[in-house]
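2024-03-11 09:14:02 INFO worker-7 job=invfold-0412 stage=load source=structure_tokens
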């Protein structure tokens, strides 16, 4: 169960004031990528940096990094046990995410982090991470419709919730590619707080940095990546101006090309999990906005040779299935539907029924074969590999499906002694 509010997290952390400064990031899409960019660049610049994102990818503790390295499991469990004992002793009744947030923040204290890059879990105003007080810069990424039952039914309502992380006296960065309804709502709150705001323009990277403009010219950077990079660089400038004014941002920008964010347009070889040797595309697109980005990438990269795409899909319960899959699955495609397993530390997350998913995509005009595999992800992937026969194969619809696939791949690599599956 998701319980928004700041009273429980306040009590969990009242005994241990946070010793680090934060960059706080809210939005519907792009939070993880921007967090990864910022963490990598800060670490490259010699700043001791912690990063807290959600959800975790494979292991529950891999959502916390120190200096770009996943926190040691032993330290995570040690601090987590301390937080859980405090929760029980004080009778707080904190939620799973609140316990995880407090654990991450305490780990940052323990590891003497200078700057913590913190991604909002859900919304912003009442999210547990909004307990942060010593914030260098707030970032609002691309906002779309998601989690409407908790955040509101309109873009304006959701934007107001996301804008809840903005604080008086703290500068902010806003993704300027947001829809007008979003920008207008955010601007109202920014004016109320008299906040210094930067609205990014990925179509004019030279305004952010000549080095960023040069990087875009050199690399094949997708439009959404351009937007995220502009947000990250703008936030980095504002943060370093306050804590490391002598550290030049332009010298760090070339390192953006080294950043990898697993599960987002990730090309990966699944051998030895399956026999297929050609790369597949793994993407955690789980709402209409991120699916649109995925669809654009597939149209430009995978369908260019006129070959159909074979899909393995799953989705969380409550998602808009038609809005998620119908625009990107085309006539001639094959689809395997499945469901991910229980999510460690997030018992409220449930998978959509695979058969129900199959019935939804079967109505797409011209669709080829659609098969349901319930929770047998490996069977779904093997069927898809056979159907694709070397042609494009995409696994998408949920970050939790991505997590299960990567976990299966890691286990297969450990059993075979092969650790070179990812490309």
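2024-03-11 09:14:09 INFO worker-7 stage=emit residues=423
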């Amino acid at each position: 169960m998701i319980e928004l509010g700041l009273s429980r997290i306040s009590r969990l952390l009242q005994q241990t004031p946070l010793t680090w400064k934060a960059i706080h990031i809210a939005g519907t899409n792009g939070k993880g990528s921007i967090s990864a960019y910022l963490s990598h660049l800060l670490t490259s610049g010699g700043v001791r940096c912690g990063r807290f994102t959600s959800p975790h990818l494979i292991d529950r503790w891999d959502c916390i990094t120190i200096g770009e390295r996943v926190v040691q499991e032993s330290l995570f469990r040690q601090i987590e046990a301390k937080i859980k004992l405090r929760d029980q002793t004080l009778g707080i009744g904190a939620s799973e995410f609140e316990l995880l947030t407090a654990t991450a923040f305490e780990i940052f204290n323990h590891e003497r982090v200078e700057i913590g890059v913190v991604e909002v879990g859900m919304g912003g105003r009442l999210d547990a991470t909004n307990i942060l007080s010593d914030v260098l810069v707030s970032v609002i990424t691309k906002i779309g419709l998601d989690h409407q039952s908790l955040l509101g039914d309109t873009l304006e309502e959701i934007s107001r919730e996301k804008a809840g992380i903005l604080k008086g006296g703290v500068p902010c960065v806003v993704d300027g590619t947001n829809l007008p309804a979003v920008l207008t709502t955010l601007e109202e709150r920014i004016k109320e707080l008299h906040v210094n705001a930067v609205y990014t323009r990925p179509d004019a990277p030279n305004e952010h940095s000549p080095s960023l403009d040069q990087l875009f010219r050199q690399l094949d950077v997708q439009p959404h990546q351009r937007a995220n990079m502009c947000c990250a660089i703008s936030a980095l400038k504002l943060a370093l101006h306050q804590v490391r004014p002598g550290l030049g941002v332009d010298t760090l920008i070339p390192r953006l090309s080294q950043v990898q964010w697993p599960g987002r347009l990730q090309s990966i070889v699944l051998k030895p999990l399956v026999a297929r040797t050609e790369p597949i595309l793994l993407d955690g697109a789980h709402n209409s906005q991120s699916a649109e980005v995925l669809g654009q990438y597939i149209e430009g990269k995978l369908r260019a040779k006129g070959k159909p795409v074979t899909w393995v899909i799953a989705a969380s319960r409550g998602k808009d299935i038609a809005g998620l899959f119908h625009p990107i699955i085309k006539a001639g495609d094959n689809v395997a539907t499945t469901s991910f397993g229980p999510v460690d530390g997030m018992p409220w997350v449930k998978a959509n029924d695979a058969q129900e998913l199959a019935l939804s995509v079967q109505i797409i005009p011209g669709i080829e074969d659609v098969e349901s595999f319930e929770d047998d992800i490996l069977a779904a992937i093997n069927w898809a590999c056979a159907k694709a026969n070397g042609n494009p194969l995409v696994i998408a619809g949920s970050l939790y499906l991505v997590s299960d696939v990567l976990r299966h791949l890691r286990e297969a690599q450990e059993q075979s002694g092969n650790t070179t599956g990812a490309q």
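2024-03-11 09:14:09 INFO worker-7 stage=report msg="Confidence is low (pLDDT under 50) at residues 419-423."
2024-03-11 09:14:10 INFO worker-7 job finished
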